[in-house]
Amino acid sequence: MDSMxxxxxxxxRNGVFRVAERGxxxxxxxxLSNSLGTTLEMWAEQLAVFSETYRVVCYDTRxxxxxxxxxxxxxxDLLGEDVLSIMDALNVDKAAICGVSMGGHTALWLAANAAExxxxxxxCNSAAKIGTAxxxxxxxxxxxxxxxxxxxxxxxxxxxxWFSANFINAEPDLVARAQAxxxxxxxxxxxxxxEALATSDLRxxxxxIKLPTLLVAGEYDPVTTxxxxxxxxxxxxxxxxxxxxxxHLSNIEAPQAFNQALASFLSSxx
Length: 270
Hints:
By secondary structure, the chain is α/β, with parallel strands linked by helices. The protein is built from eleven helices and eight strands. Helix 2 packs across helix 3 and helix 5 (148-162) packs antiparallel against helix 7.
């Protein structure tokens, strides 16, 4: 997995975002949106594969990596508008968007609120409502109180939330790299994104989503389950569900199955 990704600082109406762009300028655009506690480096495998045929754009979500860390709480209205501001700054009229977890929820929000800008959405290891407001609020409070120590503690416990036991044993270097991402996240940015997850519930928006929709679920995902994906599949007309042999960060744990599902979906968009 190539961890060296060339990035730029992109000025947008919503601030300066850390962005990576690779692939033919005239090709269809594929946007990739990261999960909570990671950076755009989580997409290294997909960036390498899909940039042969797509103009691939990935970015650090607000509060993460090299993107703006503004005081929280955040909302998905803000995180979704950030995506539109990045597209406008890059002169991208329309794109397909693929996101994992928080990024998948962002894609859902965009389908519900800015469908005219997208050709399709891939919602991976995500849900229309992720977790509970109480749990997210408690995590945000802990992170604000304990700062970097809390981020180190989250990094220590992240493998069991993100990866299956077999993968943790087989790929210690990759797991350690993922732990380094979360350890480096600004505590305020992380807490503010937890608060966005606490308050967002898109379940009543699903039936109104008309965009082509791919749902990817990890068979061993304890955070956003196959049942969460099945709920979305039943509510979004014409959506398709693919489950892959992975836990929560399925694009890293099962890249071949993930890429195959995404490639098939993207090719169906024409």
